[in-house]
Write a structure and sequence with these properties.
With 261 residues, the protein is of the alpha+beta class. The protein has 5 helices and 12 strands. Strands 7, 8, 9, 10, 11 and 12 form a 6-stranded mixed beta sheet that branches.
Length: 261
């Protein structure tokens, strides 16, 4: 280096932002966790909840963040960080008062039979799919199965949503038959959090009926919450060609009114 050359100034360290999370009325006691994140950035509340839950062996889906001011932040909410320390109280999320739909599925499937009282199906193609609660929704499935006796008990618990006894329906369908199969993934009220799959429709298909479905749904239709689209959420499906994979208007009967149609 010549006497005229000056050493390069060290690069400025990227700005950081500290987040302090404090447990309140949780099984882990009054534990705290401090995390460091890039300043001026944003992340989902689920990111912070997962960090906290992993550290103290909790179920992150049952938690929420309470800021010093404002409403509770749930997994699907966004958190924006400024230049100072952010402090959140980690609490149990309020239990839903009724069954909460997480995802809805409408498919054509092949019935493989019921071994040991468990009916199993291979998904041949999707007709419709709704990510009602994208952060908790299960994705597209290749198989589906349920315990027949347990499904009948579940039918009684959710009698206002499904009334037919599934055991009788399953008994009438021969192994190898192609069926129209619809189910909804539900978060049940109360604690601990319990997620179930509730069959909404199970019906053997004739060739004509399946051809009519193929004509009605030449490609799977997708649906997501309006607010998720507004926040730039993207749900990708293989073969989807719509702009940014935002689903086209579609109606899934079991979906709430605040979904894109």
């Amino acid at each position: 280096m010549s006497s005229l050359e000056q050493p390069a100034a060290p690069a400025a360290a990227p700005a950081k932002h500290s987040v302090l999370m404090i447990a309140e009325d949780l099984p882990c006691g009054g534990k705290t966790l401090k995390a460091t994140l890039p300043a001026g950035k944003a992340c989902g509340a689920s990111t912070l909840l997962k960090l906290f839950a992993k550290r103290f062996a909790l179920d992150w889906a049952a938690l929420a963040l309470r800021p010093p001011e404002g409403a509770l932040l749930h997994a699907g909410d966004r958190v924006v960080f400024g230049d100072e320390l952010s402090v959140f109280t980690v609490v149990l999320a309020p239990a839903p008062e009724a069954a909460e739909p997480l995802s809805a599925h409408a498919t054509v499937a092949v019935y493989d039979g019921a071994a040991g009282g468990r009916a199993t199906f291979r998904i041949a193609r999707y007709l419709r799919y709704a990510a009602v609660a994208p952060h908790h929704a299960e994705g597209l499935q290749e198989t589906f199965a349920f315990d027949v006796a347990a499904a009948d008990a579940q039918t009684e618990e959710l009698a206002d949503e499904t009334t037919a006894a599934l055991s009788a329906v399953v008994a009438a369908i021969p192994a190898g038959a192609r069926v129209e199969l619809e189910w909804v993934q539900l978060a049940m009220p109360g604690r601990p959090r319990r997620v179930v799959r509730q069959v909404q429709k199970l019906e053997a298909l004739t060739e004509a009926a399946e051809a009519a479905l193929a004509k009605q749904y030449p490609a799977p239709r997708l649906m997501m919450r309006k607010e998720e689209v507004a926040k730039g959420a993207v749900f990708e499906l293989e073969g989807c060609t719509c702009a940014a994979c935002v689903p086209p208007p579609v109606c899934v009967p079991c979906a709430p009114d605040n979904l894109i149609r």
